[in-house]
Amino acid sequence: MSDESLVEVIADAEDFVFPELDASAWERALYYHLLRKTHGAGQTDALVSIEALAASLGFSHQKTREVVRSMHLKGLDTIVERSRRGHLIRPNVPRQIRAIEFEALAPPELDWETAAVYTNRKFAAAILRREGHSCFYCSRDLTLESVVLDHAVSLVDGGNSTYRNVVAACHDCNSLKQSTSPGDFFRMLYRRGRINADELEEGLGRLEALGSGGRPLTT
Predict the structure, then answer these.
(1) CA-to-CA dists, residue 117 to 165, 167, 180, 200, 219, angstroms
(2) How far apart are CA 169 and CA 177, in angstroms?
(3) Which of 20, 74, 195, 214 is in Cβ range 3.0-4.6 Å of 199 for a Cys bridge?
(4) CA-CA distance, 52 to 90, in Å (whole number)?
């Protein structure tokens, strides 16, 4: 049928095909039923009858005929052969469906150099993961629920909201730092005994790598 895995087929169906073709719940159920009997079993086609499909899916015979017809018109399957034994049906995997232009539907590739990671909370997990699930400044353990996103260099001082300037911070550091420059803030934490000399040096190294793009994010 295709070199795509069943997981990839289902993902493409859910993300692109069903919304684009306005597939009904009945069409989705029949499509998955046919995938299980073919792609899931290492086969290309499935020989099925209206009676057997209706019994398997809990549809009426009339509804089953309607769904088989509508699926075929939308290109979700190919009816290879009709006979007294039933329909020989080949479900089309998403990238075989000509009505779907996947390249046009695919989201544009993210430009990390310009993406505003501070303003979109969906990037919080990636930022937290980059910082090793700890505060960028004091290394306190953090979770997705407790993390605060912080501009290392404040916006008023010329900072931006990209991955080069947004870090994971604890509430205490975020409240204490305010508009202090990140380098000065590390030194403040050292003077107050919040971090030791080694942690100060490591923190300043992280800060330098952050600004130079050496601490990228991955989704």
Answers:
(1) 9, 10, 21, 26, 12
(2) 10
(3) 195
(4) 16
Mean pLDDT of the chain: 88
Q: Which two tokens stand for residue 102?
A: 């996947």
Whole-model pTM? 0.53
Tokens 């009945």: give the residue.
26
Query: Which of residues 119 and 211 earns the better pLDDT score?
Result: 211
| Domains of the chain from N-terminus onward | 6-105 (1.10.10.10), 121-211 (1.10.30.50)
Percent of the chain with pLDDT over 90: 57
Q: Which residues contact 155 (CB under 8 A, 6 or more apart)?
A: 161
Report H helices in the chain: 6-12, 18-21, 25-37, 50-57, 61-74, 102-105, 124-130, 171-177, 182-191, 197-211
**Amino acid sitting at position 202:** E
